[in-house]
Backbone:
């Protein structure tokens, strides 16, 4: 469309502005502002009134509770107990005291203190409550403690006030005359209330209320629990982040809406928290700013406005009630009204829309059509050209820009579709140059890439008519002939990329110019290929004639191609680097497992190679495995699974893997047993000399001594032999072990000294007086380590693990371990060893593998499964295991049998290993078809020549197994 026609159009802004100027928005905003401010002020005033009402309710609560206690104390004052302690009088008065103390849940105890430090104390027990200085019998609900003439007794009663037990307590010390409440009550004619403190026995916050009876010269009192104040604060209607707290003059917290935050530990006892210790920054800030102030307060903290009130409780001037609430929560209704007013304003605007619609229908019709065209672009439908026209200048300009945008997007859609589909790096380079030539209509293009030495090397050349040059190794020196070239060379220099080796052969320039029209010069446009970090990946060189290259649109388009190509190249480079990084991590983990213990050797390195050799043989075989074939992604899956099949050994305790003797834990406990034998032998010598000193016959005693020493030496040799685990433990041997274990030795030292907290938990809490006779060999309670529920032992685990789980995690019993039938591992340790494959599954299942690697955990974790379903950790049969997993089973077994670097066993020859595996085939433990392939393909021999020692490769006739 001509520029003059565009200039003659009226702006759409003119029509919209004249219709909606100052029509509704101003009125709506004014009404909303006035209503909002009035409601805000009303709510704030209401909040202050609520603060005042809350203060009054708290004061009244304290007053009424105090009145109730006074009534109870008056009842006690009228009893004969005030005249002195009389057992008969006590029995008759107990029901009255029980009724009084049961009438309120907040009275802990009632007491009378007499002048000569005698006292009477009646206490109500809480369920499960214990005392620090004496034991409480079961079924006790009340305790009566009486101190008369220095003699203290405790009487325990059940719920029906029936006496359970009465006992004297000569060690009980309680100086009533020195207590603060006693002194205060003696000095006051009214009932006194002490400052709140933590009750010693109950470890709860409370206060003591007491009054002096001048007639009988006694102090009558009650211990009152204050947790009701916190419950009262919590009962008031509150906002989510509001705060209510009562503190005393020292800043100690007396009550808080969350009672669990009142106390803090000081040693084994509780103490009152200071407000500065509360984990609420707003309370700490308030106390620091308004410590000695009362009345309404309003302040800003951490960007939030707060409203509050600080009130001194008139019934108890030593206590202060603080109430705080965020203004934002207080003004929720005001904010809601403000939103409603906005909605009402919008509703009014909607009512006026029909008028605007009738007026602007003609004007907006082109916009609707253009919107439809944009919808086609959104759907990547570029089949129809844009023909929308409008009388409005802005719409017409938008149409022109949209048409250009549509064409550009169409070009780049084709480019992106073609680049994304390329998986190999060389294919991607070829596609970039082809598309560059096509979209920029250039004669040809080249890509130079930087290597690790920051040297620019030609990667590909692509010319539309110079096919003979496309594969020629040409080095080009690019001269700055345009702005783009200069910028590129400058960038090359800044990033210290070496470009000195680039040269332009004369014959190459002549060949290109032969294909140019007459009087047209050759121009090189160099564009940097930058990654997202601005690092130079290479250079895209576009060869064209000067006339085409000078068009601004062409230059911009080529720049965009270069940018998009750089991102595609970066993606390929990053993908390659990420795969290399993953491979490094895989080999790092495998190497760490192999180095963890000499028992694992290079197992994690050799098993993957043997597995892949077996898979390759299956892919090439045309009999049983003619349908078997692995694509590139499946090979990658097998590679990762084989390398990480034992990754679960990372969490297997090293001493379990390396356990060479039955008594071995972190160290070999046979040395402990040796010392016990030595101790018994020393006792034999000392017993001999003791008997001689008492007049015994030296010759007879020496014979008995020597016979015992010989027996002990023989018994220790037997125990040491059992510890090796090299032979089967028969029932006769176990019987002899039990007989030896009955010998005793004298322990005079506490076996709970110098041990860890965890070990102490395993010991019996019962104190044993020393010296104690210990059995020579024993299975003790402390030898049993409790098993915690894990994914390996949970019957409903997500991975389907199905392994027989021993009751305990560890059993370090000496007799138990020495009695292991075969080998050195107990059932508990065998479970831990077997658990490594389950841990491999768990660990690998948690990794975010892509879909084509989803079977990594299944393949890796199945290398101890058996074809008959009797393996572990999931006890699944052959049909549930992929073929690759069954191949990994054979590779794992064969490597373990033939490994020459295992310190715990002798290396087996080739024939011995194959014979053992043949038995496994007959027992339906390994796949017979894969075992047959393993032999017939020669994989076993190929592996043996590479990894087995010469003396292991013996004569083997595989025909007997085929």
Residues:
């Amino acid at each position: 469309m001509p520029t003059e026609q565009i200039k003659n159009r009226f702006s759409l802004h003119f029509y919209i502005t004249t219709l909606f100027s100052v029509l509704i928005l101003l009125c709506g905003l004014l009404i909303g502002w006035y209503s909002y401010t009035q409601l805000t002020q009303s709510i704030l005033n209401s909040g202050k009134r609520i603060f005042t009402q809350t203060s009054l309710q708290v004061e009244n609560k304290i007053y009424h509770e105090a009145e109730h206690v006074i009534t109870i104390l008056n009842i006690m004052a009228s009893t004969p107990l005030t005249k002195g302690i009389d057992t008969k009088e006590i029995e008759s008065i107990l029901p009255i005291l029980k009724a009084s103390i049961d009438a309120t849940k907040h009275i802990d105890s009632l007491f009378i203190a007499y002048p000569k430090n005698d006292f009477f104390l009646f206490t109500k027990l809480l369920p499960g409550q214990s005392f620090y200085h004496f034991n409480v019998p079961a079924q006790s609900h009340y305790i009566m403690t009486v101190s008369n003439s220095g003699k203290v007794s405790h009487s325990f009663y059940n719920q029906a006030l029936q006496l359970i037990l009465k006992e004297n307590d000569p060690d009980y010390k309680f100086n009533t005359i020195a207590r603060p409440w006693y002194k205060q009550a003696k000095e006051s004619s009214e009932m006194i209330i002490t400052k709140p403190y933590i009750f010693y026995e109950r470890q709860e916050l409370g206060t003591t209320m007491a009054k002096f009876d001048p007639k009988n010269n006694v102090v009558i009192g009650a211990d009152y629990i204050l947790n009701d104040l916190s419950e009262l604060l919590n009962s008031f209607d509150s906002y989510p982040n509001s705060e209510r707290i009562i503190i005393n003059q020292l800043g100690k917290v007396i009550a808080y809406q969350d009672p669990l935050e009142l106390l803090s530990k000081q040693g084994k006892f509780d103490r009152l928290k200071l407000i500065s210790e509360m984990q609420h920054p707003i309370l700490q800030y308030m106390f620091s700013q308004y410590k000695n102030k009362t009345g309404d307060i309003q302040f800003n903290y951490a960007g939030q406005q707060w409203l509050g009130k600080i009130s001194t409780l008139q019934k108890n001037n030593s206590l202060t009630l603080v109430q705080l609430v965020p203004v934002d929560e207080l003004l929720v209704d005001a904010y809601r009204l403000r939103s409603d007013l906005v909605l009402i304003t919008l509703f009014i605007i909607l009512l006026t829309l029909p008028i605007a619609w009738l007026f602007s229908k003609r004007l907006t019709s082109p916009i609707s059509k253009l919107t439809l065209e944009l919808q086609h672009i959104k759907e990547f439908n570029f089949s129809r050209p844009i023909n929308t026209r409008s009388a409005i200048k802005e719409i017409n300009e938008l149409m022109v820009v949209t048409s250009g945008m549509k064409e550009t997007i169409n070009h780049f859609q084709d480019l992106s579709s073609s680049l994304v589909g390329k998986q190999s790096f060389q294919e991607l380079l070829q596609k970039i140059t082809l598309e560059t030539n096509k979209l920029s209509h250039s004669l040809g293009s080249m890509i130079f890439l930087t290597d690790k030495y920051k040297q620019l090397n030609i990667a590909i050349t692509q010319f539309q008519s110079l096919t003979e040059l496309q594969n020629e190794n040409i080095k080009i020196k690019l001269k700055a002939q345009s702005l783009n070239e200069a910028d590129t060379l400058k960038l090359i220099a800044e990033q210290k990329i070496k470009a000195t080796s680039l040269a332009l052969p004369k014959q190459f320039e002549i060949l290109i110019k032969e294909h140019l029209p007459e009087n047209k010069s050759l121009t090189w446009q160099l564009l940097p290929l930058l990654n997202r970090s601005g690092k130079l990946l290479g250079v895209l060189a576009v060869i064209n004639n000067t006339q085409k290259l000078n068009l601004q649109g062409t230059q911009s388009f080529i720049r965009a191609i270069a940018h998009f190509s750089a991102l595609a190249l970066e993606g390929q480079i990053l993908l390659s680097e990420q795969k290399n990084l993953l491979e490094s991590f895989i080999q790092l983990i495998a190497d760490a497992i192999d180095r963890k213990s000499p028992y694992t050797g290079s197992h994690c390195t050799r098993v993957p190679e043997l597995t892949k050799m077996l898979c390759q043989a299956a892919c090439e075989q045309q009999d049983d495995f003619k349908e078997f074939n692995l694509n590139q992604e499946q090979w990658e899956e097998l590679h990762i699974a084989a390398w990480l099949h034992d990754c679960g050994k990372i969490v297997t305790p090293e001493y379990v893997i390396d356990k060479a003797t039955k008594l071995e834990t972190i160290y070999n406990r046979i040395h402990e047993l040796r010392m016990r034998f030595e101790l018994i032998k020393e006792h034999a010598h000392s017993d001999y000399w003791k008997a001689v000193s008492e007049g015994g016959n030296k010759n007879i005693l020496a014979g008995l001594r020597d016979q015992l020493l010989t027996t002990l030496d023989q018994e220790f040799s037997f125990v040491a032999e059992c510890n090796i685990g090299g032979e089967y433990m028969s029932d006769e041997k176990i019987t002899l072990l039990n007989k030896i274990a009955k010998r005793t030795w004298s322990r005079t030292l506490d076996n709970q000294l110098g041990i860890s907290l965890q070990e102490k938990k395993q010991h019996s809490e019962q104190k044993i007086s020393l010296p104690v006779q210990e059995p020579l060999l024993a299975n003790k309670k402390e030898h049993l380590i409790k098993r915690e529920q894990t994914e390996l032992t949970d019957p409903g685990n997500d991975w389907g693990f199905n392994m027989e789980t021993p009751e305990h995690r560890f059993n370090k019993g000496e007799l138990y371990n020495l009695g292991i039938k075969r080998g050195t591992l107990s059932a508990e340790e065998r479970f831990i060893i077997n658990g490594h494959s389950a841990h491999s599954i768990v660990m690998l299942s948690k990794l975010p593998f892509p879909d084509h690697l989803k079977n990594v955990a299944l393949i890796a974790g199945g290398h101890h499964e058996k074809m008959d379903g009797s393996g572990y950790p999931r006890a699944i049969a052959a049909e549930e295991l992929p073929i690759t997993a069954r191949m990994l089973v054979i590779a794992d077994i064969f490597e373990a049998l033939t490994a020459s670097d295992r310190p715990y066993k002798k290396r087996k020859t080739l024939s011995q290993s194959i014979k053992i595996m043949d038995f496994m085939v007959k027992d339906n433990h390994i796949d017979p078809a894969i075992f047959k392939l393993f032999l017939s393909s020669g994989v076993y021999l190929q592996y043996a020549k590479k990894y087995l020692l010469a003396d292991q490769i013996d004569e083997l006739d595989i025909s007997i197994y085929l």
Summary: The radius of gyration is 46 Å. The mean pLDDT is 75.
